[in-house]
Amino acid sequence: MTCDLRQRLELALAKPGHTSSDYDLNADVLLPEGRLLRPAAVLVAFADRPSGPALLLTKRAPTLKHHPGQIAFPGGKVDAGDADATATALREAQEEIGLPVQAVNVIGALPSHETVTGFQVTPVLAIVEKPVTLLPEPGEVAEVFEVPLAHVLDRSRYSVQSRRWRGARRAYFTVPWGPYYIWGATARMLCALADRMADEAD
Q1: Would you say the C-alpha torsion 150, 151, 157, 163 has a positive or negative sign?
Q2: Cβ proximity of 127 and 45 under 8 Å
Q3: What is the pTM of this model?
Q4: Cβ-based neighbour number of residue 13 at 10 Å
């Protein structure tokens, strides 16, 4: 099963693609040329389950200053000591949810995603190939949970909603799962993956 999942992800990554943005659904926003974005990375980690591949996601701690309680991938900004975006994603996943680096097989990365908070995020795709016991860091992560890969690859599950932000109405993607409201940058990056894997036979 792991081999099949790896092949599916490799095929998806081999397809041409382009960067995405939190502004994709808001054509009225003019982004300044030469803007400085801070590099960051997230780990989009999958695990094989008897019912099919599942995606690991986190619910951020309610005490965090930024995005408390939101659904996110493990990840964060690139530190000076990180060799590359992959190193950042792996380090952050180990720090946030206790995912050992040696249990992870990195497949590759999607094109980067620009967030409204000024980050250029690299989504690193990986498969968790060994049994692990995840230990969320309570100061950062309230919960780790799994979503069936089939759910986030089903484009019919996505909807576009909007809310007022900084004085204007802004649209964004959502792909809810049970009690978890997956939206914003996380949903946009998953949507990009779903688009790439929609026609895997191509």
Answers
A1: negative
A2: yes
A3: 0.92
A4: 17
